[in-house]
Design a protein that fits this description.
Length: about 400
């Protein structure tokens, strides 16, 4: 059971590492992204070595009992070192002197963590009293061994200090970023850090109870690993969200915009741009580019049909929409959909009204931002074939035929 869970999470985590690494190789100057890759790799390794079968298999291969725990905790320390470097980068100023100061302090932090961890590993090597595997109860099995306790205490000190710093700073930076995906990722990362601190607290309390003669394996071996696992998952999602969130949003936009886009570009193929070579091979390739392209091509069609739309078409559509008590967003979508259909219809038969529309785009003030404009066009796509639009078009056709008579 534990093997399946941890190995699956480990595989997902390494896939995220690979994705972030590709992005980092494209932008080597982005130090924060490089640190995120290293920290995500640390989380991924923790998941792999947390699988009991892999833990025992590694120890059999090396012939050293519980050596896998050293690698597991070393991965956590790599995460902690990356977190401390991020903290230094985020808290320094933007000047060249501040950046130089941050680099110097980062090197000092890495050197300090390396020295402390070397001492901790030495304590493990000297203090490990037996050759029994303890993948699930390592911290409680060796509470009487000073060397192993030194190893564990230093590990918790390094890990806990990095978690506390990230847990405080991430929400502060998220508050500056509004409702962006990066802000959401930082908040999830902060939540993972606070759960990690609960894990550290459970371990320390467990040590204290053991030394006082009151064993509490349920705390050290039950509650603590659960908090650590959930915290690691939250941190992993927090790292992935800034990249995955926009792509998921772009995929939703594509699904909603595609029917409208296919309809209007089929009647105006001259506006279509060159396709990405990857789009036809992989459905999730270039999602944001494809969503932007579809919106741009719909807008190009609208600009091209303005003179084919009666100047009062939008007003008529608004009046009919008000009758059925639509809100402002729906009303704007109905007006734009009706004007778009009417323009394409008139263009197909070569009809140019005496007074054409100045614009057939009815976004309102809220659509100034790109996300709001996407949502507006998605609403246009939703109502494009609705009975209300058919009613408006019927009225426009009748008015046009009467004027010709």
């Amino acid at each position: 059971m534990f093997d399946v869970i941890y190995l699956c999470f480990g595989a997902v985590a390494w896939a995220i590492v690979a994705y972030k690494a590709v992005a980092w190789f494209r932008d080597r100057s982005n130090t924060d992204l490089g640190l995120a890759c290293v920290m995500t790799g640390g989380v991924a390794t923790v998941f792999l070595f947390s699988a009991p079968s892999l833990y025992r298999g590694f120890d059999r291969l090396t012939s050293v009992a519980n050596l896998a725990m050293v690698f597991l905790y070393s991965s956590v320390v790599v995460f902690a070192a990356g977190a401390l470097m991020l903290l230094l980068r985020w808290t320094e100023g933007e000047s060249a002197a501040a950046r130089d100061r941050a680099r110097f302090r980062a090197r000092a932090v890495v050197a300090g963590v390396a020295v402390l961890w070397a001492v901790a590993v030495t304590g493990f090597a000297v203090g490990r009293p037996d050759a029994v595997e303890h993948p699930r109860d390592f911290s409680t099995a060796y509470t009487g061994s000073p060397g192993v306790m030194l190893f564990l205490v230093l590990y918790l000190a390094i890990f806990g200090s990095s978690l506390a710093g990230l847990g405080i700073l991430c929400p502060r930076y998220a508050a500056r970023l509004g409702g962006s995906w990066l802000a959401r990722g930082l908040r999830l990362l902060a939540a993972g850090c606070w759960l990690g601190l609960v894990y550290c607290a459970c371990k320390v309390i467990g040590f204290g109870l053991s030394w006082a003669g009151h064993e509490a394996p349920w705390l050290s071996n039950g509650v603590a690993p659960l908090c650590a696992s959930v915290g690691a998952i939250l941190a992993l999602v927090g790292f992935a969200l800034p990249a995955a969130g926009p792509r998921a949003a772009a995929w939703r936009r594509l699904r909603r915009l595609s029917p409208l886009w296919r309809t209007v570009t089929a009647q105006a193929p001259e506006v279509t741009m060159e396709r990405s070579p990857w789009s036809g091979r992989w459905p999730f390739a270039d999602l944001e580019w494809r969503a932007n392209r579809q919106m741009a091509e719909i807008r190009d069609v609208q600009r091209g049909i303005r003179r084919h739309v009666e100047s009062d078409a939008v007003d008529i559509a608004r009046e009919r929409a008000r009758v059925v008590a639509l809100d402002d967003r729906q009303l704007a979508a109905v007006a734009e959909a009706a004007a778009l259909r009417r323009g394409l219809e008139n263009r197909a038969v070569g009809h140019v009204p005496a007074h054409g529309a100045d614009s057939v785009v009815v976004t309102g003030g809220e659509a100034a931002e790109l996300t709001a404009e996407y949502e507006h066009l998605a609403l246009v796509a939703d109502v494009y074939r609705s009975p209300l639009i058919e009613t408006v078009l019927t009225e426009l056709r009748q008015r046009s035929s009467q004027s010709h008579d």
